[in-house]
Structures are given as C-alpha cells and as structure tokens.
Specification:
The mean pLDDT is 88. A hairpin with a 2-residue loop joins strand 7 and strand 8. The protein has 13 helices and 12 strands. It is globular and about 70 Å long. The chain folds into 2 domains: 201 residues, Jelly Rolls, CATH 2.60.120.10; 91 residues, Homeodomain-like (Arc Repressor Mutant, subunit A), CATH 1.10.10. With 317 residues, the protein is of the alpha+beta class.
Length: 317
C-alpha cells in the first residue's frame, strides 16, 4: 500500500505537494484552486493498492479543480480509464462535450487519452479505480459516449455495481492473491454493463452479476440485521428479484441466505458479549433480530461451543 498525506508538510507547501501526488498516484494532471486564499492550508490524503492490473485508490481532499488537457496528455500519454465512485461531496464532470454532476453513491468514468475537467465542488472522498484502457474499452458498446455519464444506485444494476466497488475498495488488502484477477475482471464487466456494454460484456454478465449481487446483498444484510423481519422475501423485494433467484445466487457460495443471516447475527451478538456487561443476554439477542431466546441459545452454543452466558464470562477470565 502506498500513502500520500499533505498534512505532513507545512501549510504553505501542502497544495504544491498535492500537485505532485496527483501526478504520481494517477496520471499527469493540473489541479487548480478557485481562490488563492485557500493556499494557506490543503489537507489531503491518497492511499493506493493493487487489485491485479487495476489500481484502487482512496482519496480525501478539499474543493478544487482537476484538469487533464492536451498538454497533460502529451506529457503522460498513459492509456487508462478512471472509475471514480463519489463517497462524499459533489463533482462536476466536463468531457467529450458532456457535463454532469456526480454526487455521493454515484460514479462516472473518464478516459486518460481524452481531455477532461473535474470540478470538485465540495470537500470530497472518492474511491478511484484505474483500469487499463485495453481491458474496459472493448466491452463498451459506445466508448466515446460512455465517459462523463453519471451512474447512481437508484437502479438495480447501479446499486449492485456500486456495492461491489465499495466492497472491493474497502477490503483490497484482505483479498487472497489468487482471487484478485477474477474479481478485477468482474469489476470491469460490471462497470461496462452499467454504462452500456457490448455483447461480449453481456455474455459474461451472469457470473459478474451474481458476485456483484452477492456483495450487495451481504451489505444490505449487515445494515438490517437488527430487523427481525429480515427475510429472503424482503431482500428479494428490495433488489427487485425473485426469492428463487436470490437463493440461486447463494448456491455459488459456502453459506445459504438463511445461514448467512444467522452467522452475521451470531457474530454481532458475540462481539457485544465481549463488551461491557450493561446489557442482558436476552436484550443482545433481541437487538440483533432473534425473536426466540431458546433458538438463539441453541444456535449460539452450536456456533461457539458455549452458552452465551458462559461465552461472556469465559472471555473475561
């Protein structure tokens, strides 16, 4: 992992260093500030990690402009796409005669071989994925009309892709090396499908969509574990798929949907049992969606080899 942090420098040197950071972490770019007074301080940070041939970066910075014009392209003619997933703040894209604003939980792509202008209108956080151009371009049905297009999580495919991007970016360092190439290919296919993919992309969509949908469902499960009504039917309704199709997605993984929900709930309960003893065991069980205490005790003992009370006391001795 590589890390660049402007806060390690005196305030007056931070933005000058940021110019170098962008060029080193991405491609040759020209950042500009809207107001000179902002030069007094510019705290920003980039972390970069590889995912096979894709580079995954996390960026936190202040409002400013980023330009890649003809001069920057000539200086650094690297052929890549950047998929920028906005986590916080807004960015206005100008490229290929198009203009769009991308906000949190939305993404757009830019082509390093073509000029573009990015106006980060607020302080911002972004996951950025640098994809070799030869990997993504053949999968785009209309490559020159696919950049600078906002993809949001309001549609099913957008939600699946964005959840998959977030899951990968947040766990890159934990991924086994032998899975990196396959996951990188899934990422590229999902991005292509989101902005308009070719027949080749659509032919390979089943596995990619299943993996992306599985990641999105896991995220949804974790966000709704406390809801006792969480079920295969409610999750299928949220993702606008049939319950049968949901179970089919989980057939490719070690645990079924029901086993996954149970495992995540038990892990949450175990974590709380290791914490302060200000809640009863029953309260913890009900808090994480268990509606029947005897069922919780039985499943907890089966999973951890101890009753919840014994688990709590064993962890403290």
């Amino acid at each position: 992992m590589q890390i660049w942090n402007t806060e390690e420098l005196p305030d007056r040197e931070q933005f000058a260093y940021w110019r170098e950071v962008l060029c080193e972490a991405f491609v040759t770019l020209r950042p500009e500030l809207a107001e000179r007074r902002d030069l007094r301080r510019f705290p920003s940070r980039v972390t970069a990690q590889p995912l096979s041939t894709i580079n995954v970066t996390t960026v936190q910075s202040k409002a400013h402009h980023v330009i890649r014009g003809d001069a920057e392209i000539r200086k650094s003619p690297r052929e890549v796409y950047f998929v920028n997933l906005q986590l916080a703040g807004r960015c206005r894209y100008e490229t290929e005669g198009r203009e769009t604003i991308v906000g949190p939980n939305q993404f757009a792509i830019v082509d390093s071989t073509r000029p573009y202008f990015l106006d980060f209108m607020d302080d911002w956080d972004v996951f950025s994925f640098r994809i070799p151009r030869h990997m993504l371009r053949p999968l785009l049905q209309a490559p020159d009309r696919s950049t600078g297009i906002c993809v949001s999580n309001t549609g099913a495919l957008g939600e699946i892709t964005i959840s998959f991007l977030k899951s990968l970016a947040g766990r890159v360092s934990d991924l086994p090396a032998d899975a990196a190439e396959s996951l990188a290919l899934d990422l590229v296919k999902l991005v292509a499908l989101s902005v308009g993919g070719t027949e080749e992309a659509r032919m390979g969509q089943r596995q990619s969509l299943h993996r992306g949908l599985h990641a999105a469902i896991l995220k949804f499960i974790d966000a709704n574990l406390a809801d006792p009504s969480l079920s295969a039917a409610s999750v299928a309704t949220h993702f606008r798929i049939s319950t049968r199709y949901l179970h089919k997605v989980f057939e490719e993984w070690e645990h079924s949907f029901a086993q996954t929900v149970l495992e995540h709930r038990l892990l949450r309960c175990a974590a709380e049992l290791e914490g302060p003893m200000d809640m009863r065991v029953s309260d913890i069980a009900f808090r994480w969606g268990f509606g029947d205490l005897s069922n919780f005790n039985r499943n907890f003992r089966q999973r951890f080899g101890l009753s919840p009370r014994d688990y709590r006391h064993r962890r403290r001795t």
